[in-house]
């Protein structure tokens, strides 16, 4: 098992990619600290610790770190999978919406990194940030989201250098369009779901959406010792979208 005796925090653990990561990590033997906005999580196992809350609130993040220290002592892996997407033309987006996108995708990641890096053991650890293909390319209507995810990439690269001597690795998995419950619901809300799905798929060289499990495979790689000499990297899992 690739994560035997490893303690991992997974944020945004309630569905989609986060749920797939949780399943992969359990299979590989990890002890899990999970967080999300839902008050309860049906998939939590007896040996998991689930703490609901808002990662934009530093007091909550600090309390989460304290609970991790009390329950596990150290944390070896942190998967930053939470975030918020709000689509709008730049000139139409209200300031509060823009701030929410930046806070939820970038500044909350900073807070988790700030409070959990000190919990990593002397031999080091791994942060895996879940970015987006839109952190690497621009797209109309997604300017603030792209800015936030692009900022997350640079946060990871800077932290990778700053923490290298502590053997704390920081990498980014950048998914493309993924068949999560949120995306599937958005497709079903369109006037012609099948036509809309096909339109989105034709924008991807591999002609299909990613599965949450495929994204979780990449996250597991960065969490495990198989990536022990990789830090500051960005791995697109986007079916070739950013290869254009």
Automatic annotation (TrEMBL):
Keywords of the record: Oxidoreductase
Domain of life (superkingdom): Bacteria
UniProt cross-references to InterPro entries, sorted A to Z: NAD(P)-bd_dom_sf (IPR036291), Sc_DH/Rdtase_CS (IPR020904), SDR_fam (IPR002347)
Gene3D superfamilies xrefs: NAD(P)-binding Rossmann-like Domain
PROSITE patterns per record: ADH_SHORT
Keyword Oxidoreductase: yes
Gene Ontology molecular function terms on file: oxidoreductase activity, acting on the CH-OH group of donors, NAD or NADP as acceptor
Family the entry assigns: Belongs to the short-chain dehydrogenases/reductases (SDR) family.
Protein name according to UniProt: Dehydrogenase
Organism whose genome encodes this protein: Streptomyces variegatus
């Amino acid at each position: 098992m690739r994560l035997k005796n490893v303690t991992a925090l997974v944020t945004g653990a309630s569905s989609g990619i986060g749920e797939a990561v949780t399943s992969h990590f359990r299979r590989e033997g990890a002890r899990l600290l999970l967080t999300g906005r839902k008050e309860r999580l049906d998939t939590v196992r007896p040996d998991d610790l689930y703490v609901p809350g808002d990662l934009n609130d530093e007091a909550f993040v600090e309390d989460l770190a304290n609970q991790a220290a009390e329950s596990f002592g150290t944390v070896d892996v942190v998967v930053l999978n939470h975030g918020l997407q709000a689509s709008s033309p730049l000139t139409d987006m209200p300031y509060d919406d823009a701030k929410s996108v930046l806070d939820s995708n970038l500044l909350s990641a900073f807070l988790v990194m700030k409070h959990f890096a000190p919990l990593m053991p002397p031999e080091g650890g791994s942060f895996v940030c879940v970015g987006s293909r839109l952190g690497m390319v621009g797209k109309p209507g997604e300017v603030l989201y792209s800015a936030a995810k692009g900022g997350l990439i640079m946060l990871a690269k800077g932290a990778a250098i700053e923490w290298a001597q502590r053997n704390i690795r920081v990498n980014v998995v950048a998914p493309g369009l993924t068949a999560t419950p949120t995306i599937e619901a958005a497709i079903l809300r369109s006037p012609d779901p099948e036509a809309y799905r096909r339109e989105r798929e034709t924008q991807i060289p591999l002609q299909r959406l990613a599965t949450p499990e495929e994204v979780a495979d990449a996250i597991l790689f960065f969490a495990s010792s198989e990536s022990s000499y990789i830090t500051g990297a960005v791995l697109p899992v986007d079916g070739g979208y950013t290869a254009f």
